[in-house]
Amino acid sequence: MEKHVAVGECVSQVQRVLRERFCHQRLPDKPVGLESQYKHLLELLRRTAVHGESNSVLIVGPRGSGKTMLLRCALRELLELQEAKKNVLQVHLSGLLQTDDRIALREITRQLQLENVVGDKVFGSFAENLVFLLDALKKGDKSSSRPVLFILEEFDLFAHHKNQTLLYNLLDVSQSAQAPVAVVGLTCRLDVLELLEKRVKSRFSHRQIHLLSSRSFHQYRDAFRSELTLQDGFPDSKFSQEWNLGISKLCEDKSVDEILQKHYNSCKDFRSLHSLLLLAVSRVSVSNPILRAVDLLEASRMSSADSKGNILHGLSVLELCLIIAMKHLNDIYEGEPFNFQMVHNEFKKFLQRKSHSIHNFDKPVVFKAFEHLLQLELIRPVDGGVCKVQREYQLVRLMLDHTQVMEALQRYPQCPTDVKQWAVSAFG
Amino acid sequence: MSGAVLQCPGYPEDKLRTLTEDLTCREVQAGTLLSLMGEPDQYSYPSVFIYGHRATGKSHVLLTLLTQLQLPYAAVSCVECVSAGLMLEQVFSALFGPDAASLLPRSPSLSDFVRIYRQACVERPARQTRYIVVEKAELLRDMEANLLPALLRLQELVDDNVTVFLLSEIVWEKFRPNTGCFEPLLLHFPDYTKAELLHILSRDAHPSHTPELYTSYINILLGVFYSVCRDLRELRHLAALNFCKFCEPLEKGEARESDTHKLWKNIEPHLKKAMQSVYLREVSSVQWEQQQMDEKEATALRGLSAHAHVELPYYSKFLLIAAYLASYNPARTDRRFFLKHHGKIKKTNFLKKHEKTSNHLLGPKPFPLDRLLAIFYSVVDSRVAPTANIFSQISSLVTLQLLTQVGHDDQLDCPKYKCAVSLDFILAISRTLSFDIVRYLYDFL
């Protein structure tokens, strides 16, 4: 009994540690594989923070490539410097939250804690307001003001704001040496510079840090191992040894290798690896205290399930018949859109010639099935469904391809044989 | 159907046991959900997307778990929340109470929400994972573009232990924005199998009858409806409505509970009729029950389809027929149909057509007013003067949406129309005039 409790405690500790890694994106000690970018960024920020130079930089990389992680690591190290810590101010903005420049400016004021300085003042322009804010940060001796780091997440969304006022003013300040600011933009769009207006673009320093992940499979597997490995601080050293031993065994397993290879080929960023690992780790319990290959297999099955196939599995026989009729129409007319009448006609032909198991349904009943498919977005109206056409003549397209339909048919429980036959071969 | 009791450390065991009873046939899904959520104080994945057909227990399982285990959560449905502000307000007051929610400005933006959320978090840091459940998440796509991506990464934005569940019938691929977003975990709720449906529906058995009787009734019901509809809620509705009818022979003493065949013969035609009316929502359940009471009237079922003909003035009917003919016949065949001495038209050539070109598959074609009137004068038997009376009837047909005007309605010179009624409708109309419309339709020659 004593032992059992201990195991339960350990398992829950493991869960806690690993979940913090996978879900909460806990920062690693050093960004792995991004050393040069890290050094570059840190140096840039240090120049602003310590020497008061203004700068602007864009961090560009696909989703999940570790842009935010890189920046946060750099900020963490920056703030360990004594002269930076007491001096530097940070302003975090996100394109998702600050959807226009007015909101953004208010947020900047708030984050710089200047609300009572601004008070009820009325400003003529955006630029005036921003300059006032930055002036307010100047220290007593007037010569040096406190450096401000502006961090813009989802930078591309700011480019959609009216006249790009915020970007223009921030970059203008960073150019004209009014106050030391660093503007750091994070974006997943490679073409982000094309979005900027000419006057904005010319004020940008054109410094870009690219995080194009070129991780090899070997590195990917190492990451897999290190992400799962428990560190020394774990309370029960015996358990953590066993766990780590289990992980290294897991890495040598052939089936695990295959799973990882599959995932690596579809997506090699950390975030998709994390979601896979979370699914696997969530299966670890008291009765099953180490991670097994089976868990990983199950997790991989869950994360790579064909969702449309899953939805097709739950359709009624009538709805499935309509899908097959649409498939035939697609084959005959080479992907041209079709309407309900054509589908119904095709379905009726099937009923007349071959069917034994499906009875005749009234047209409204069939239409209801058709509308359900529309609602599930397995078929989609061609022109948004706004024009004044009778509903049965509304042109639609099937959003499934041939193989998806056939696969779903194979998996369909108790599918009538004649329906299967019909799917394989159209008549006439 | 007794699966293993749900297990997850960190939650009281007796609660888990009662949960297992509440969530029949969904034990696997509930178990997966629980293990994903983890212990209450551990972090959970920022967003989870749950999809599955209507009435497969998505909301039921999730909300039962959250309420029974007394976890802090906010559940909103996108149908109720017409704007993002409304939704954020609801979420906030459910998580932090109405007092804290008064800090939010009126119709808060996401920026306000996140700021106040962070403030509230400082005062009351999360000891347990907070959950936000968004039902009918497909409607999120029609709201502000930043709402969905922000909800998906809310954990990062507010820096709190919070998990967002999105529930929808539509697959995740249809949600993904152009520039991508944080990818949620995907969780599928499969449809109930026939056996599971039988099991769940049988639990509604009325105490006045034996459970076996009810089960056999459900079996018959599924036999009729299963190939059309697998929606548990719909089936349950149908089952409740038709059960008295099923029991009628028992009450009259014509059959005993063991005479399954007799009972089946009694109910089957009835259920088929229900498919044509109740299932299509043509009659309300009250109407349906009344019809069952009046046995005599039940022969003439009065659904919408029975009302399909509309009373129209005499000439309007002919105008509508003319419009139908003009919409569904090619213009070149008018000579053949409406001219007494139409000269020589090669019969074989005339009849040569392909199914592909059948107008009843492609839908009505637009036609000019002149053609409508020409056909009208030739089908109507008496001589009619082209008065304003006739023209006003055309525009009232447009108002009734039996005809639709094509193009802009400021075109006075020669407006074009389309006929917007179905074949059944026009057949009913022409029957009242004893006009054999089928003879005049090119598709049916």
UniProtKB/TrEMBL annotation, chain A:
Signal peptide as annotated in the record: none
Keyword ATP-binding assigned: yes
SUPFAM superfamilies: P-loop containing nucleoside triphosphate hydrolases
InterPro entries from the UniProt entry: AAA+_ATPase, AAA_16, ORC4, ORC4_C, P-loop_NTPase
Location in or out of the cell: Nucleus
Cellular component terms (Gene Ontology): cytoplasm; nuclear origin of replication recognition complex
SMART domains in the cross-refs: AAA
Domain named AAA+ ATPase: residues: 53-214
The protein's assembly and partners: Component of ORC, a complex composed of at least 6 subunits: ORC1, ORC2, ORC3, ORC4, ORC5 and ORC6. ORC is regulated in a cell-cycle dependent manner. It is sequentially assembled at the exit from anaphase of mitosis and disassembled as cells enter S phase. Interacts with DBF4. Interacts with POLQ.
Role description: Component of the origin recognition complex (ORC) that binds origins of replication.
Family: Belongs to the ORC4 family.
The protein, known as: Origin recognition complex subunit 4
Organism: Ictalurus punctatus
Classification of source organism: Eukaryota, Metazoa, Chordata, Craniata, Vertebrata
TrEMBL record, chain B:
Single GO biological process annotation from the record: DNA replication initiation
Database matches in Gene3D superfamilies: P-loop containing nucleotide triphosphate hydrolases (3.40.50.300)
Keyword check for Manganese: no
Protein's cellular compartments: Nucleus
Gene Ontology cellular component terms for the protein in this record: nuclear origin of replication recognition complex
Primary location class: nucleus
Residues in Origin recognition complex subunit 5 C-terminal domain copies: 312-441
Domain of life of the native organism: Eukaryota
Pfam families registered for this protein in UniProt: AAA_16 (PF13191), ORC5_C (PF14630), ORC5_lid (PF21639)
GO terms assigned for molecular function: ATP binding; DNA replication origin binding
InterPro entries reported for this sequence: AAA_16, ORC5, ORC5_C, ORC5_lid, P-loop_NTPase
Domain ORC5 lid: 214-281
Primary role: Component of the origin recognition complex (ORC) that binds origins of replication. DNA-binding is ATP-dependent. The specific DNA sequences that define origins of replication have not been identified yet. ORC is required to assemble the pre-replication complex necessary to initiate DNA replication.
PANTHER family per UniProt: ORIGIN RECOGNITION COMPLEX SUBUNIT 5
Similarity field: Belongs to the ORC5 family.
Subunit structure: Component of ORC, a complex composed of at least 6 subunits: ORC1, ORC2, ORC3, ORC4, ORC5 and ORC6. ORC is regulated in a cell-cycle dependent manner. It is sequentially assembled at the exit from anaphase of mitosis and disassembled as cells enter S phase.
Protein name: Origin recognition complex subunit 5
Gene: orc5
